[in-house]
Amino acid sequence: MNTTLRTEGISKQWGAFKANSDISLTFEPGGRHALIGPNGAGKTTFINLLTGALQPTSGKVFFGDQDITSRSQHERVKMGMTRTFQINTLFLGLTVLESVVLAISERDGLYRNWFRTVAQQTEAIDEALALLATLRLDRDINTVTRNLPYGKQRLVEIALALATKPKVLLLDEPAAGIPSTDSAELFEVISQLPRDVTVVFIEHDMGLVFRFAERITVLVGGKVLTEGTPAEISADQRVKEVYLGEAAHDE
Ligand SMILES: Nc1ncnc2c1ncn2[C@@H]1O[C@H](COP(=O)(O)OP(=O)(O)OP(=O)(O)O)[C@@H](O)[C@H]1O
Questions:
Q1: For residue 251, is pLDDT > 50?
Q2: Which residues line ligand 1 at a C-beta cut-off of 6 Å?
């Protein structure tokens, strides 16, 4: 099945206020796609419509050939669309390896099965080790997650999301709150994830966006202003005026 994620004329309205208006976007499999736009442009609302956290007022979401507009968040995760969540207290108290093994075991339903073979447990541990190596956390596997620096905790969140074996990973400001020296490293790891994972991310730091995104969609006032490659977006006069101009004034 072709698992291109796409929206068709999606809108979200609260009363008379339109947070998203008629957004039609396609995310090519394996791409690294950034959503940018000024504060309040509707980026988080759009991600929530993709994950199923919000239902659109009108329009549709397709994953491959399937119309998933009315599917629950849980169903979408099972189909291969995952977003990161803040690590909860349970995971904070476990080591990095324990957390990821737990997430893999949960995915495979091993904890609902009282009889777990040693082979099944070994497979989960091996898979967790491989995943943590991809995220450059191999030196931290035995560290209790709450003792890790904040940037590495964000990577553990991504590891837990990847443990669901997503085809699409949705990231809402993954580097928020991380010192800027660490955020580039975080994005380097994200951009080097296997190409069978499509990554869609919201990011305010334009340096990171232009360095790591392959396609960029600019949202303004809930609508798509334009979409293109980083070169196309940085050359677009309208983007400079409504977004990059504003960012420049903020600095
Ligand atoms: N549940 C809600 N009810 C009413 N208005 C909402 C709701 N959620 C979001 N909004 C409004 O929708 C608009 C878009 O918000 P959204 O969080 O999607 O923007 P954003 O582009 O992610 O902004 P930021 O970059 O500041 O995070 C904002 O004006 C926000 O106040």
A1: no
A2: 14, 19, 37, 39-45
